[in-house]
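Predicting holo structure, adenosine-5'-diphosphate bound.
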Amino acid sequence: MNVPELFGSNVFNRQVMQDKLPKDIYKSLIKTIDEGAPLDMSVANVVANAMKDWAVEKGATHFTHWFQPMTGITAEKHDSFISPTKDGKVIMDFSGKELVVGEPDASSFPSGGVRATFEARGYTAWDPTSFAFVKDGTLYIPTAFFSYSGEVLDKKTPLLKSMAALNKQALRILRLFGNTSAKRVFSTVGAEQEYFLVDRKMFDARKDLIFTGRTLFGAKPPKGQELEDHYFGAIKTRVSAYMKDLDEELWKLGILAKTKHNEVAPSQHELAPVFTSTNVASDQNQLVMETMKRVATRHGLYCLLHEKPFAGINGSGKHNNWSMSTDTGLNLLDPGSTPAENGQFMLFLTAVIKAVDEYQDLLRLSVASAGNDHRLGANEAPPAIVSMFVGEELEEVIDSLEKGVKYNGKGKKTMKLGVDTLPELPKDTTDRNRTSPFAFTGNKFEFRMVGSSFSLAGPNITINTIVADSLRQFADELEGAKDFNAALHDLVVREIKAHKRIIFNGNNYAPEWAEEAEKRGLLNLKNAAEALPHFADKKNVELFERNKVFTAREVVTRTDIMLENYSKVLNIEALTMIDMAKQDIYPAVEGYISSLCAALKEKKGTLPGVSFPAEERMIAKLASDAERMLERAEMLDSLLVESKAYETPAKLALFFAEKVIPVMQELRAYADGMELNTAAGVWPFPTYGEILFSV
Ligand code: ADP
Ligand code: MG
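Done. Tokens:
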């Protein structure tokens, strides 16, 4: 395999544009891509035609506007290129207008009621900053999705807007440091994607996996992950063949798939790409997830992207590595080596610290979902409390700045930002704190709370916007300063003092941390139902409006969509549980109890006077557990009826969190107990042991 040749071979990238487009057209398209210049329809026509010719060469017969509605996954509708001719034949045709705008019949996508009052129509608009590509005989055109009245209906548009806000404010700061060469600042993301691979036959035999993506039942297997023998372990042949195939597919799509390894849990794995600009990383992560699923089918496998497919076994996350970069390639979270670079770094770092402290709620809720609730705080992922890790060296620097004391006692005077240099900061991974939700790792932050099935858009809309807002305030203050270095120093010291409580370098999994965090006044929004309504808090609406990322109305509708999604997921899970309990588990256990009773009766007849107390206890226990389980199924049934009465999404979500989930847990406990007390072969679907060690 020639990887350089394969890489990006199905992508209409800069190289292809340069090869296939007339010089002047290429130039104006690049101007649109790099600087956001408006695109002329005459240019679009030429681009569309070249794109179509290239795609047809690659075997494409259709095109689609590919978009990201608020469902969190992608959507597509395929149109063929054919256009009839007078002689009853067809030609392959694709116009600039078809490239630039689309009009999918989109009335069934969640809009939180935005469209009901206007018009049902939704429009898609080409996003030229993310390359078009060919997949399965179709030309995919990445697009943004909005309503007739201009209201945003997707996850991509606000992500682009948050990047624009960050660009604007970060450039103001760079100019203050005398940087005149950077034309653009954008955030960068590299997302480590965790996933499970299970045998397709196991998957097909479990309604819970089919309907909900996770197991709603399942007793702990004798062997789980306690030996920690899977993490970075040798990759099995079947998995290795899958990973090779996956890499190849991703490379063709121009995705920089780089690292692959086994994760902590049995049958859990990870893929990490090389980082790239956030909107591209977000599009590409959608393709990664989709390709993971598609390729699995070819190998007789199923790829589970749920945050917690198995209770008692580590769940899956998506570590969101985030930084800011200039178009000239400067990483703004790289400390640098001169006093000026150090000062600039400290200012950007302080902006992030302030942002994370002031908007803990937004970060928390950007990763809130029914699935991720199982993971956060389960001692395998960060807790629901947002804090940040900066490392010992930086903490010392921060301390010294804050208290005006000498750094490290090395005979230096107290540090003056913009004048003195920072000590060397290690960039290795040895002192990494892997329990922190938001960790500085040398030249980027790693946001570890993101769930494996999440779109990257939500968390990064949040990070971009809150950091942009800190930078805006810093720029406002420093632009008017007479003595820049003195003002810079004072600002950083003041802001660090104000927001230092968010820094925690200790073990985030320790129970003491929750107490300590409470003393510090940090938020602890335990579940999604509690966290999500804060999206529409006044301060958050104002933040998004000020930075032109969301309108107030969009924030409110999005809050409702997220809350409704939470309740819908739980409703489906509860229904699936009832179904499996009544239709599968109960009949299987009843059959088993009957056979035990019959055998016992026969034995007692044959061996009068002999007693079988253990066997009797076993039968009694099974009979009682079966009864208790059925009771819980009935209770769930009536709770679901009761849930119909809740009118606001926030109240309904709380009802599911507080009333429905506990009964689901009880129901499961009875079922799992019975699983352990029945003979092999009786249980109506594959067990944890069978699924987890199936590949
Ligand atoms: P870990 O030790 O956390 O498993 P990995 O090396 O697997 O780390 O992943 C680190 C991720 O961070 C990669 O996707 C990498 O491309 C990404 N990354 C590195 N530098 C940056 C940066 N400046 N901005 C965003 N992401 C980055
Ligand atoms: Mg990581």
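The mean pLDDT is 92.
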